[in-house]
């Protein structure tokens, strides 16, 4: 049996750069699309250092999850894409502070982005039973 699916756009979330939703709920799972360093308040990219870009990406994820009644504590898996594997340590410090004692499963890979000034993208899966 296929669970009911609902594609959602979260008010106040960052504007997607393509034909996709912020998040898709499938049963009790939330699949958050890859987030990039776009400031949701200005809708502008912030191509700064890896620490700021990571913070923006994770705050976008937090905002999207909150719009679904979830939080970072509900995240079960993350995929982290870095343009420069040398940024791993700095990204990991921000990531670790964001999740605290909660440790979702994670994969981190090096990739080449269309926009070379973009250093990071993160997507995630959260588990949040529907009320």
Write a short abstract of this structure:
With 131 residues, this protein is α+β, with helices and mostly antiparallel strands.
Descriptive account of the structure:
- By secondary structure, the protein is an alpha+beta fold.
- The chain has one domain (5-127): RutC-like (60s Ribosomal Protein L30, Chain: A).
- Helix content is 22%, strand content 28%.
- It contains two helices and six strands; from the N terminus they run βββαβαββ.
- It has helices at 50-66, 88-99, and strands spanning 5-8, 23-26, 29-35, 75-82, 105-110, 120-127.
- Strands 1-2-3-6-4-5 form a six-stranded mixed sheet, with helices on one face.
- Helix 2 links the parallel strand 4 (75-82) and strand 5.
- The longest helix is centred in the middle third of the chain and has 17 residues, at 50-66.
- It is globular.
- The two termini are 20 Å apart.
- The mean pLDDT is 94.
């Amino acid at each position: 049996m296929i669970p009911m699916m609902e594609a959602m756009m979260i008010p106040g979330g960052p504007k997607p750069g393509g034909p996709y939703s912020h998040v898709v709920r499938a049963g009790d799972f939330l699949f958050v699309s890859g987030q990039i360093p776009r400031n949701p308040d200005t809708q502008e990219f912030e191509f700064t250092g890896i620490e700021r870009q990571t913070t923006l990406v994770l705050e976008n994820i937090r905002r999207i999850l909150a719009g679904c009644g979830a939080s970072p504590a509900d995240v079960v898996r993350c995929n982290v894409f870095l343009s420069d594997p040398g940024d791993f340590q700095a990204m990991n410090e921000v990531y670790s502070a964001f999740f605290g004692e909660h440790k979702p499963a994670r994969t981190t890979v090096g990739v080449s982005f269309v926009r070379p000034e973009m250093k990071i993208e993160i997507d995630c899966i959260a588990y949040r039973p529907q009320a």
